[in-house]
Amino acid sequence: MKVNQYLENANNQTLISFEVLPPLKGGSMQAIFETLDMLMEFKPPFIDVTYHREDFVYKKMPSGYFEKTAIRKRPGTVGICAAIMHRYGVDAVPHLICGGFSKEETENALIDLNFLNINNVLALRGDARTFDGKFVPEPDGHEFALDLVKQIADMNQGKYLDEDIAQGEKTDFCIGIAGYPEKHFESPNLQIDLDYTKEKVDAGADYIVTQMFFDNKHYFSYVDACRKAGINVPIVPGLKPLTKAYQLNSIPRHFHIDIPEELAKELAKATTAKARQQAGVEWCIMQSKELKAKGAPCLHYYTMGDADTIRQVAESVF
Question: Is residue 48 within 8 Å of 20, Cβ to Cβ?
């Protein structure tokens, strides 16, 4: 079943979903299973699995020079999705990214997903590599998420890259995209960011999942702005408990979002790790209850390997 169908058939009830990270290369699926085993009692209809582009490391050679080597730290998204669907009987949503893939590699990945009966994808541009000053696409790859959405939508119409394929099988992917309540950091302003989002919806995107935020007013304002811009697909809020002191600096730096003053003060005055965790969990519970009460279609939790705090939130909200 497709994500947009779950959202449409929810009868105004707020659903719950989770996002997991593939294990680091050399790790096992057991970590994923342990995370989801703790969360499946909340009956998520779908689980997102992130995709990570290759990055570069510099290895020192015997000569003293450094060799630039590409590595993919978290491979396995497609396999993890298949394993989740087999083990739990829930739909998996693999993230597809522009970075690190040519158009043909993307098409082949979509063909594999279609063969596995995985018919939901989240289409993202992806981040720049650590040593790149800005996002750099692969040769013959997509520069923008809009182009990735268009490629998926084309395959849904039976249109493949090879023009000699006259009657290709029509895939049936439900396409999700990212939304940014505090705007994407590369956009000059929110209105231009909304214009880009509308282009993706017009090209075939079926729903939006937001970047995490810690002040619900950003989500409500974003939904209002989307509706005024003619964006009428479901908008799912993304949530993450902020539970560690270093996150007060790392999350704004990495995700380009604000931490509300009240939350920052609560975490700063906590004298133990447990107290900080509890303050972050209680804040996320407050956010979740308000979003649910005001009709958010689904609450999407970024687990980031911390199933225990997500479980505490879910137990209080669902």
Answer: yes
As a three-state string, the secondary structure of 182-207 is CCCCCCCCHHHHHHHHHHHHHHCCCE
pLDDT digits (tens, 9 = 90+) for 262-297: 999 998 889 899 999 999 999 999 999 999 999 999
| Cα gap 40→90, rounded to integer Å | 10
The number of distinct structural domains making up the chain is: 1
**By residue range, what is the domain housing residue 305?**
3-317
Query: Which of 106, 102, 96 is closest to 138 using CA atoms?
Result: 102
H/E element, 81:
helix 77-88
Using pLDDT thresholds of 50, 70 and 90, give the confidence band for residue 236: very high
> Residue written as tokens 């005055």?
269
CATH of the domain at 77: 3.20.20.220
Burial of 305 (0-12, 13-18, 19+ CB in 10 A): exposed
For helices 273-293 and 307-317, angle between their N-to-C axes, nearest 10 degrees: 40
CB-CB neighbours of 277 under 10 Å? 20
Q: What is the pTM for the complete model shown?
A: 0.92
**Beta strand residue intervals within 21-144, DSSP E:** 46-49, 55-60, 66-71, 91-97, 120-124
Spatial CB neighbours of 41, under 8 Å, sequence gap ≥ 6: none
